[in-house]
Amino acid sequence: MHQGWKPCINSISSKTGFSELPESNGFLIIEANGGLNQQRLSICDAVAVAWLLNATLVIPIFHLNSVWQDSSKFGDIFDEEFFIHALRNHVNVIRELPEDVLQRFDNNISNIVNLRVKGWSSPAHYLEKVLPKLKAMGAVRIAPFSNRLAYSVPSNLQGLRCLSNFEALRFSEPIRALAGKMFERMLKNSSHSGGKYVSVHLRFEMDMVAFSCCEYDGGEEERQEMDIARERSWRGKFRRRGRVIRPDANRVDGKCPLTPLEVGMMLRGMGFDKNTPVFVAAGNIYKAEKYMAPLKQMFPLLETKDTLATPEELVIFKGHSSRLAALDYTVCLHSEVFVTTQGGNFPHFLMGHRRYLYGGHAKTIKPDKRKLAMLFDSPHIRWETFKQQMKDILRHSDVKGGELKKLTGSVYTFPMPDCMCKQTENGNTTKLPYS
Q: Which PANTHER family match (predicted)?
């Protein structure tokens, strides 16, 4: 791994920490919706907003999402006590509203005013619109809260995002225990390569294939399955008047999830051979027996959470997609190379976390899917030509591995320079002037 950057939480803490927290202006209740990493985003943004408003943050409520269907609470996924302790000098976090406060709202949290905050709102909006109501009422709700704070905020708020995401949020003990065993087993299975393995985030679940509006090779049966899946999860969204589904255009535009076969061909083209240990992070793959067969044939040392853990170990996680995603996240986090095949919060958070842990640069392959679609759909392309194109994608991914955050970028994906300090030759660290 490259060196040159290191986490600088002490520098961050000096900007936002208190020897004694000031008197609170009231209680902030937020509802985190979506999957594991969308919830993560909401939690970290809520910490920043609570600090800005000088509010007491109530442990976030998790909304039961129609797609994810996971009833887990905060403490099922994250270590509540550790989270509260890690933020103790910055934001007061409590598990639930005090009884006397709840009684003021007839013991019903729904009676607390829900402020509809627009997406990507600025800190000024919170100070002008939310703070007066917080002070007047003593408690406010913001639901939903996903993406309710702008990416571009002052450095002290970015620092709180860093502290929350990379230091305060750790998985609950049951998740850490099993994820640790899975990682050890993956290392053992990779002993011939010095414990190095490739992790792949494969987004080929039915809901992802359906949402993409792409077509594969299942004909009319597949089209009917996808229509039913789209209607079940996104009622009416894809049947609105004027909505036209163009699978061919989606593919040319690089919007289609890569199939397991395409992922395998890409990796083999990049030079990863059949002896490469591969961990695949995924939900329930669409028609897994059919689509996973060629990938397993190309990479016989392929593992998933279902092969690394026993059914007995996984039983408490089954039916809880966010907890299962946390297991995948941990094994991917410590891989030598991480391959992302589709956008979304999982790869974005993982890329940032890996940069944070590994000196600002972690090997991540983020392919150009427009280019891949063109190459895969070229009937006369020679294997040598294809391999050269894959090597070019690999080189480009490596160059982008240590990228700094742009003004409108996310600190969760690009932790430099807001969360990390540049190391000088003598080993000292320095914050960049614009961080």
A: O-FUCOSYLTRANSFERASE 9 (PTHR31288:SF22), O-FUCOSYLTRANSFERASE FAMILY PROTEIN (PTHR31288)
